[in-house]
Amino acid sequence: MEGLANSCALLDYLAEINAPGAFFLLDLGCSGGIDRPWRRMRRSLRAIGIDPDVREIERLRSREKNSAVSYENAFAGLPLNHPFILQKQGRPQFERNPWPRLSTPRYMELVYSGDKPVTEKEKRSANLWPTAKLADPAVPLVVPEYLAGCGIGSVDFLKIDVDGDDFEILHSFDQALADLKVLGVGIEVRFWGSHRETDGTFHNVDRFLKARGFELFNLTTRRYSAAALPGRFRARAPGATELGRVYQGDAMYARDLGSAAYDEDEFAQSLSVDKLLNLAAIFAVFDLPDCAADVVLKFREQLSSICDVDRVLNLLTAQAESRLSGPASYSRYMERFQRHPQQFLGTKNPFPGLARACKKNYLKWRGRRQLLALERRGE
Asked: Which domains occur in the chain, in start order?
Protein backbone atom coordinates (compact mmCIF):
# COMPACT_ATOMS: atom_id res chain seq x y z
CA MET A 1 0.00 0.00 0.00
CA GLU A 2 1.30 3.44 -0.93
CA GLY A 3 1.56 6.37 1.46
CA LEU A 4 3.28 4.74 4.47
CA ALA A 5 6.38 6.32 5.97
CA ASN A 6 9.49 4.17 6.38
CA SER A 7 10.67 6.41 9.22
CA CYS A 8 8.17 6.79 12.06
CA ALA A 9 9.60 7.54 15.50
CA LEU A 10 6.20 7.20 17.20
CA LEU A 11 5.99 3.52 16.21
CA ASP A 12 9.48 2.98 17.63
CA TYR A 13 8.29 4.50 20.92
CA LEU A 14 5.16 2.34 20.97
CA ALA A 15 7.37 -0.71 20.52
CA GLU A 16 9.00 0.25 23.85
CA ILE A 17 5.85 0.84 25.89
CA ASN A 18 3.08 -1.30 24.39
CA ALA A 19 2.12 -4.78 25.50
CA PRO A 20 2.68 -7.66 23.05
CA GLY A 21 0.00 -7.72 20.36
CA ALA A 22 -1.43 -4.33 21.36
CA PHE A 23 -1.89 -3.35 17.69
CA PHE A 24 -3.79 -5.67 15.32
CA LEU A 25 -3.26 -5.44 11.56
CA LEU A 26 -5.39 -7.38 9.07
CA ASP A 27 -3.93 -7.55 5.56
CA LEU A 28 -6.19 -8.90 2.80
CA GLY A 29 -4.12 -9.35 -0.34
CA CYS A 30 -0.82 -9.83 1.47
CA SER A 31 1.28 -10.99 -1.48
CA GLY A 32 4.82 -9.77 -0.88
CA GLY A 33 4.23 -9.68 2.88
CA ILE A 34 2.72 -7.09 5.18
CA ASP A 35 3.91 -3.53 4.56
CA ARG A 36 7.26 -3.19 6.31
CA PRO A 37 6.61 0.11 8.18
CA TRP A 38 4.22 -1.72 10.52
CA ARG A 39 7.13 -3.84 11.75
CA ARG A 40 8.47 -0.84 13.63
CA MET A 41 5.96 -1.82 16.32
CA ARG A 42 8.00 -4.99 16.89
CA ARG A 43 6.46 -7.12 19.66
CA SER A 44 3.39 -4.87 19.98
CA LEU A 45 2.29 -5.84 16.46
CA ARG A 46 0.00 -8.76 15.75
CA ALA A 47 -0.93 -9.35 12.11
CA ILE A 48 -2.81 -11.78 9.89
CA GLY A 49 -2.30 -11.80 6.13
CA ILE A 50 -4.74 -13.53 3.76
CA ASP A 51 -4.07 -14.20 0.08
CA PRO A 52 -5.26 -16.77 -2.52
CA ASP A 53 -1.78 -17.42 -3.98
CA VAL A 54 -0.84 -20.85 -2.62
CA ARG A 55 2.91 -20.69 -3.24
CA GLU A 56 3.20 -17.11 -2.03
CA ILE A 57 1.56 -17.99 1.29
CA GLU A 58 3.94 -20.96 1.60
CA ARG A 59 6.88 -18.62 0.91
CA LEU A 60 5.71 -16.05 3.47
CA ARG A 61 5.18 -18.70 6.13
CA SER A 62 8.64 -20.15 5.57
CA ARG A 63 10.32 -16.72 5.78
CA GLU A 64 8.34 -15.21 8.66
CA LYS A 65 10.35 -15.01 11.89
CA ASN A 66 7.78 -13.14 13.99
CA SER A 67 5.42 -15.61 15.65
CA ALA A 68 2.80 -12.87 16.01
CA VAL A 69 2.48 -12.59 12.20
CA SER A 70 0.58 -15.39 10.43
CA TYR A 71 -0.74 -16.07 6.93
CA GLU A 72 -3.82 -17.82 5.57
CA ASN A 73 -4.39 -19.13 2.05
CA ALA A 74 -7.90 -18.24 0.85
CA PHE A 75 -10.04 -15.98 -1.30
CA ALA A 76 -11.67 -13.40 0.97
CA GLY A 77 -15.25 -12.74 -0.04
CA LEU A 78 -18.96 -12.87 0.70
CA PRO A 79 -21.42 -15.75 1.06
CA LEU A 80 -23.12 -16.52 -2.26
CA ASN A 81 -26.50 -15.52 -0.80
CA HIS A 82 -25.34 -12.12 0.44
CA PRO A 83 -27.56 -9.22 -0.79
CA PHE A 84 -24.57 -7.54 -2.47
CA ILE A 85 -23.81 -10.70 -4.49
CA LEU A 86 -27.48 -11.09 -5.47
CA GLN A 87 -27.71 -7.44 -6.49
CA LYS A 88 -24.61 -7.80 -8.67
CA GLN A 89 -25.77 -10.97 -10.46
CA GLY A 90 -26.00 -10.75 -14.23
CA ARG A 91 -23.63 -7.79 -14.47
CA PRO A 92 -20.02 -7.82 -15.67
CA GLN A 93 -17.40 -7.86 -12.93
CA PHE A 94 -15.80 -4.72 -14.39
CA GLU A 95 -17.77 -2.23 -16.48
CA ARG A 96 -16.14 0.40 -18.71
CA ASN A 97 -12.73 -1.11 -18.01
CA PRO A 98 -9.97 0.54 -20.12
CA TRP A 99 -7.41 -2.17 -19.25
CA PRO A 100 -7.33 -3.90 -22.71
CA ARG A 101 -6.35 -0.57 -24.32
CA LEU A 102 -3.48 0.22 -21.95
CA SER A 103 0.25 -0.24 -22.49
CA THR A 104 0.78 -2.41 -19.39
CA PRO A 105 -1.14 -5.48 -20.63
CA ARG A 106 0.44 -4.99 -24.04
CA TYR A 107 3.89 -5.12 -22.42
CA MET A 108 2.92 -8.36 -20.68
CA GLU A 109 1.82 -9.88 -23.99
CA LEU A 110 5.19 -8.98 -25.52
CA VAL A 111 7.44 -10.02 -22.62
CA TYR A 112 5.58 -12.81 -20.83
CA SER A 113 4.68 -15.03 -23.74
CA GLY A 114 3.01 -18.37 -23.05
CA ASP A 115 6.11 -20.41 -23.88
CA LYS A 116 8.40 -18.49 -21.49
CA PRO A 117 8.75 -19.66 -17.86
CA VAL A 118 7.74 -17.06 -15.27
CA THR A 119 9.41 -16.85 -11.86
CA GLU A 120 7.45 -16.45 -8.63
CA LYS A 121 8.96 -12.97 -8.21
CA GLU A 122 7.75 -11.96 -11.67
CA LYS A 123 4.26 -13.24 -10.86
CA ARG A 124 4.13 -10.97 -7.80
CA SER A 125 5.69 -7.88 -9.34
CA ALA A 126 3.73 -8.06 -12.60
CA ASN A 127 0.45 -9.37 -11.07
CA LEU A 128 0.50 -12.47 -13.27
CA TRP A 129 -2.20 -14.20 -11.23
CA PRO A 130 -3.57 -16.37 -14.10
CA THR A 131 -0.24 -18.26 -14.01
CA ALA A 132 -0.29 -18.77 -10.23
CA LYS A 133 -1.77 -21.67 -8.29
CA LEU A 134 -4.68 -20.21 -6.32
CA ALA A 135 -7.05 -21.27 -3.56
CA ASP A 136 -10.56 -22.41 -4.50
CA PRO A 137 -12.63 -19.29 -5.34
CA ALA A 138 -15.84 -21.29 -4.90
CA VAL A 139 -15.14 -21.44 -1.17
CA PRO A 140 -14.69 -17.80 -0.14
CA LEU A 141 -13.47 -16.95 3.34
CA VAL A 142 -15.85 -14.54 5.09
CA VAL A 143 -13.17 -12.81 7.12
CA PRO A 144 -15.28 -11.38 9.99
CA GLU A 145 -16.64 -14.89 10.63
CA TYR A 146 -13.10 -16.27 10.50
CA LEU A 147 -11.92 -13.66 13.03
CA ALA A 148 -14.82 -14.49 15.36
CA GLY A 149 -13.86 -18.16 15.17
CA CYS A 150 -10.31 -17.22 16.17
CA GLY A 151 -11.58 -15.23 19.14
CA ILE A 152 -10.38 -11.90 17.68
CA GLY A 153 -12.63 -9.06 18.81
CA SER A 154 -10.60 -5.99 17.84
CA VAL A 155 -8.87 -4.85 14.64
CA ASP A 156 -6.96 -1.58 14.46
CA PHE A 157 -6.15 -1.35 10.74
CA LEU A 158 -7.76 -3.20 7.84
CA LYS A 159 -5.96 -3.27 4.50
CA ILE A 160 -7.70 -4.54 1.34
CA ASP A 161 -5.78 -4.85 -1.93
CA VAL A 162 -6.82 -7.89 -3.93
CA ASP A 163 -6.74 -6.50 -7.49
CA GLY A 164 -10.43 -6.80 -8.19
CA ASP A 165 -13.06 -7.58 -5.57
CA ASP A 166 -11.91 -5.04 -2.98
CA PHE A 167 -15.35 -3.42 -2.71
CA GLU A 168 -17.06 -6.79 -2.36
CA ILE A 169 -14.74 -7.74 0.49
CA LEU A 170 -15.34 -4.36 2.13
CA HIS A 171 -19.07 -5.21 2.20
CA SER A 172 -18.28 -8.27 4.31
CA PHE A 173 -17.16 -5.83 7.02
CA ASP A 174 -20.40 -3.83 7.00
CA GLN A 175 -21.30 -4.30 10.67
CA ALA A 176 -17.88 -5.67 11.59
CA LEU A 177 -16.24 -2.25 11.16
CA ALA A 178 -18.08 -1.17 14.31
CA ASP A 179 -18.08 -4.53 16.11
CA LEU A 180 -14.31 -4.90 15.70
CA LYS A 181 -13.74 -1.21 16.50
CA VAL A 182 -11.75 -0.75 13.27
CA LEU A 183 -9.87 2.55 13.39
CA GLY A 184 -8.47 2.74 9.86
CA VAL A 185 -9.04 1.19 6.44
CA GLY A 186 -6.62 1.15 3.54
CA ILE A 187 -8.12 0.04 0.25
CA GLU A 188 -7.21 0.08 -3.42
CA VAL A 189 -9.72 2.16 -5.39
CA ARG A 190 -10.56 2.53 -9.08
CA PHE A 191 -11.13 5.81 -10.88
CA TRP A 192 -12.94 4.19 -13.78
CA GLY A 193 -16.18 2.23 -13.90
CA SER A 194 -19.93 2.67 -14.12
CA HIS A 195 -22.43 4.59 -12.04
CA ARG A 196 -23.89 1.40 -10.52
CA GLU A 197 -23.81 1.19 -6.72
CA THR A 198 -22.27 -2.31 -6.83
CA ASP A 199 -19.29 -1.15 -8.90
CA GLY A 200 -16.03 -0.88 -6.94
CA THR A 201 -15.34 2.70 -7.94
CA PHE A 202 -13.79 5.29 -5.67
CA HIS A 203 -17.06 7.17 -5.22
CA ASN A 204 -18.84 4.01 -4.03
CA VAL A 205 -16.04 3.11 -1.59
CA ASP A 206 -16.03 6.68 -0.30
CA ARG A 207 -19.79 6.69 0.22
CA PHE A 208 -19.74 3.28 1.94
CA LEU A 209 -17.04 4.20 4.45
CA LYS A 210 -18.33 7.67 5.21
CA ALA A 211 -21.73 6.18 6.00
CA ARG A 212 -19.95 4.09 8.64
CA GLY A 213 -18.09 6.91 10.35
CA PHE A 214 -14.83 7.13 8.40
CA GLU A 215 -13.19 10.10 6.68
CA LEU A 216 -10.69 10.13 3.82
CA PHE A 217 -7.22 11.14 5.00
CA ASN A 218 -4.89 10.00 2.23
CA LEU A 219 -5.26 9.20 -1.46
CA THR A 220 -2.57 8.23 -3.95
CA THR A 221 -3.04 8.01 -7.70
CA ARG A 222 -1.45 5.76 -10.32
CA ARG A 223 -1.47 6.59 -14.02
CA TYR A 224 -1.53 4.04 -16.84
CA SER A 225 -0.72 5.03 -20.40
CA ALA A 226 -2.64 3.90 -23.47
CA ALA A 227 -1.08 1.30 -25.76
CA ALA A 228 -1.57 3.83 -28.55
CA LEU A 229 1.37 5.80 -27.09
CA PRO A 230 3.10 3.89 -24.27
CA GLY A 231 4.68 5.80 -21.40
CA ARG A 232 7.70 4.86 -19.34
CA PHE A 233 6.95 2.64 -16.34
CA ARG A 234 7.51 4.13 -12.89
CA ALA A 235 9.31 1.02 -11.61
CA ARG A 236 11.33 -1.96 -12.82
CA ALA A 237 8.15 -3.93 -13.38
CA PRO A 238 5.12 -3.37 -15.63
CA GLY A 239 2.46 -1.34 -13.86
CA ALA A 240 1.86 2.36 -13.38
CA THR A 241 3.47 4.73 -15.88
CA GLU A 242 4.82 8.29 -15.74
CA LEU A 243 2.08 9.57 -18.04
CA GLY A 244 -1.44 8.42 -18.80
CA ARG A 245 -4.93 8.44 -17.35
CA VAL A 246 -5.61 8.28 -13.61
CA TYR A 247 -6.47 4.60 -13.28
CA GLN A 248 -6.30 3.53 -9.63
CA GLY A 249 -4.83 4.43 -6.27
CA ASP A 250 -4.72 3.67 -2.56
CA ALA A 251 -7.14 5.38 -0.19
CA MET A 252 -6.69 5.57 3.59
CA TYR A 253 -9.75 6.19 5.75
CA ALA A 254 -9.80 6.65 9.52
CA ARG A 255 -12.00 7.68 12.40
CA ASP A 256 -11.70 11.45 12.76
CA LEU A 257 -11.80 11.41 16.55
CA GLY A 258 -10.26 14.86 16.74
CA SER A 259 -13.51 16.27 15.37
CA ALA A 260 -16.18 17.66 17.71
CA ALA A 261 -18.63 15.42 15.85
CA TYR A 262 -17.29 12.53 17.95
CA ASP A 263 -17.65 14.29 21.32
CA GLU A 264 -20.90 12.51 22.17
CA ASP A 265 -20.37 9.57 19.84
CA GLU A 266 -21.03 6.15 21.36
CA PHE A 267 -18.30 4.51 19.30
CA ALA A 268 -15.63 6.98 20.43
CA GLN A 269 -16.64 6.64 24.07
CA SER A 270 -16.37 2.84 23.84
CA LEU A 271 -12.70 2.91 22.81
CA SER A 272 -9.99 2.00 25.27
CA VAL A 273 -7.06 4.33 25.77
CA ASP A 274 -4.87 1.81 23.90
CA LYS A 275 -7.10 2.16 20.84
CA LEU A 276 -6.81 5.95 21.00
CA LEU A 277 -3.02 5.67 20.92
CA ASN A 278 -3.26 3.15 18.07
CA LEU A 279 -5.24 5.69 16.03
CA ALA A 280 -2.45 8.22 16.50
CA ALA A 281 0.00 5.54 15.34
CA ILE A 282 -2.03 4.94 12.17
CA PHE A 283 -1.90 8.62 11.30
CA ALA A 284 1.83 8.77 12.01
CA VAL A 285 2.73 5.74 9.89
CA PHE A 286 0.79 7.29 6.99
CA ASP A 287 2.97 10.39 7.40
CA LEU A 288 0.17 12.45 8.92
CA PRO A 289 1.83 13.61 12.17
CA ASP A 290 -0.48 16.62 12.31
CA CYS A 291 -3.57 14.38 12.44
CA ALA A 292 -1.88 12.22 15.07
CA ALA A 293 -1.18 15.34 17.17
CA ASP A 294 -4.83 16.34 16.83
CA VAL A 295 -5.88 13.05 18.48
CA VAL A 296 -3.15 13.19 21.13
CA LEU A 297 -4.06 16.72 22.22
CA LYS A 298 -7.77 16.00 22.41
CA PHE A 299 -7.25 12.87 24.53
CA ARG A 300 -4.17 14.07 26.41
CA GLU A 301 -5.63 13.29 29.82
CA GLN A 302 -6.56 9.70 28.93
CA LEU A 303 -3.31 9.03 27.06
CA SER A 304 -1.16 10.33 29.92
CA SER A 305 -2.02 7.14 31.81
CA ILE A 306 -0.12 4.95 29.33
CA CYS A 307 2.46 7.18 27.63
CA ASP A 308 4.53 10.35 27.92
CA VAL A 309 2.29 12.71 25.95
CA ASP A 310 4.92 15.45 25.66
CA ARG A 311 7.40 12.95 24.25
CA VAL A 312 4.78 11.75 21.74
CA LEU A 313 4.19 15.33 20.59
CA ASN A 314 7.93 15.92 20.25
CA LEU A 315 8.29 12.77 18.14
CA LEU A 316 5.46 13.88 15.87
CA THR A 317 7.11 17.30 15.55
CA ALA A 318 10.37 15.67 14.48
CA GLN A 319 8.44 13.74 11.82
CA ALA A 320 6.74 16.93 10.58
CA GLU A 321 10.12 18.67 10.35
CA SER A 322 11.77 15.65 8.63
CA ARG A 323 14.43 15.98 11.32
CA LEU A 324 17.53 13.91 10.57
CA SER A 325 18.90 13.91 14.12
CA GLY A 326 18.52 15.54 17.50
CA PRO A 327 15.39 16.13 19.58
CA ALA A 328 12.48 18.27 18.47
CA SER A 329 10.28 20.49 20.63
CA TYR A 330 6.55 20.64 20.02
CA SER A 331 6.17 23.70 22.27
CA ARG A 332 8.88 25.69 20.42
CA TYR A 333 7.48 24.63 17.07
CA MET A 334 4.00 25.89 17.99
CA GLU A 335 5.43 29.09 19.51
CA ARG A 336 7.22 29.79 16.24
CA PHE A 337 3.95 29.34 14.34
CA GLN A 338 2.14 31.71 16.73
CA ARG A 339 4.82 34.42 16.63
CA HIS A 340 6.07 34.11 13.06
CA PRO A 341 3.38 32.46 10.94
CA GLN A 342 4.91 33.99 7.79
CA GLN A 343 7.83 31.56 8.20
CA PHE A 344 5.45 28.77 7.23
CA LEU A 345 4.69 30.27 3.81
CA GLY A 346 6.02 28.57 0.71
CA THR A 347 8.63 30.04 -1.59
CA LYS A 348 9.45 30.03 -5.29
CA ASN A 349 13.13 29.60 -4.46
CA PRO A 350 13.89 26.02 -5.57
CA PHE A 351 16.71 25.41 -3.05
CA PRO A 352 14.65 25.11 0.17
CA GLY A 353 12.32 22.70 -1.61
CA LEU A 354 15.29 20.71 -2.90
CA ALA A 355 16.76 20.51 0.59
CA ARG A 356 13.45 19.25 2.04
CA ALA A 357 13.14 16.65 -0.74
CA CYS A 358 16.69 15.41 -0.08
CA LYS A 359 15.96 15.07 3.64
CA LYS A 360 12.75 13.12 3.01
CA ASN A 361 14.43 10.82 0.48
CA TYR A 362 17.32 10.17 2.87
CA LEU A 363 14.88 9.36 5.71
CA LYS A 364 13.01 7.03 3.36
CA TRP A 365 16.23 5.23 2.42
CA ARG A 366 17.48 5.06 6.02
CA GLY A 367 14.09 3.88 7.25
CA ARG A 368 13.99 1.13 4.65
CA ARG A 369 17.39 -0.18 5.77
CA GLN A 370 16.20 -0.21 9.38
CA LEU A 371 13.02 -2.06 8.44
CA LEU A 372 14.91 -4.70 6.46
CA ALA A 373 17.09 -5.29 9.50
CA LEU A 374 14.02 -5.63 11.74
CA GLU A 375 12.49 -8.14 9.33
CA ARG A 376 15.65 -10.23 9.21
CA ARG A 377 15.81 -10.33 13.00
CA GLY A 378 12.14 -11.27 13.23
CA GLU A 379 11.27 -8.36 15.52
From this structure: 9-313 (3.40.50)
